[in-house]
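User: Second chain of the day. Same drill as before.
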Amino acid sequence: MDSKFTFFLLIVSSIIFSQKKNEKFFDEDISIKYEKVPASDVGIGVMGSFDKQAYATFVGSNVAEKNQQYFHYIKFKSINFTENSSQIYLCIYKNNRGLPGEILEGAKFLVNIPAHKSFVTADLSKLKIKVPENGYFVGFEWVLSKENEMKGKISAAKLPYNPTISGFTDNKVNLYSRRKEWRRQQDSDLVAGLALEISYFQLTSDKIE
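Assistant: Same format as last time:
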């Protein structure tokens, strides 16, 4: 298999799974919602490996302007290529001179990803995590376990890992990967960045206990 496809995958199949909603996983303050992906869906994505253990995308600083905002939810699309669920960490990183830095306090979440395709929405509104004014990164850290190995017809010395997280194509690359250190992807022919839907909210009162 071409090494490029060890990290990036063109998703062309249509897979149906049983719909789940409002499941809570590991953290009582986070509500996770799973929604069915339409059968006609076609997309591209990134997956974990020993060489690429995490991916992230930069989000600009214009979201926090004058009034302090907080993270409401983060929505993304995933797919498992086995009949079993998998686990992955959803992380929000500080902006460290244009690269993902430390994870924001309380902003690393272990999320259960059901089998096949799903839209996953992580509701973070109860945590009151402030949106950094100088921008931030949203990314995923793969759990490199036997349970998450992408088995089947894949013939590679080192198997990639479930789940695949959907990305988007563009002329400008906004995709960063990490093994021991973070670096910006320069050979992202298929994926230019992670496809994320991010929502914010403002508190009605500035007082936070």
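Confidence is low (pLDDT under 50) at residues 1-25.

User: Great, on to the next one.
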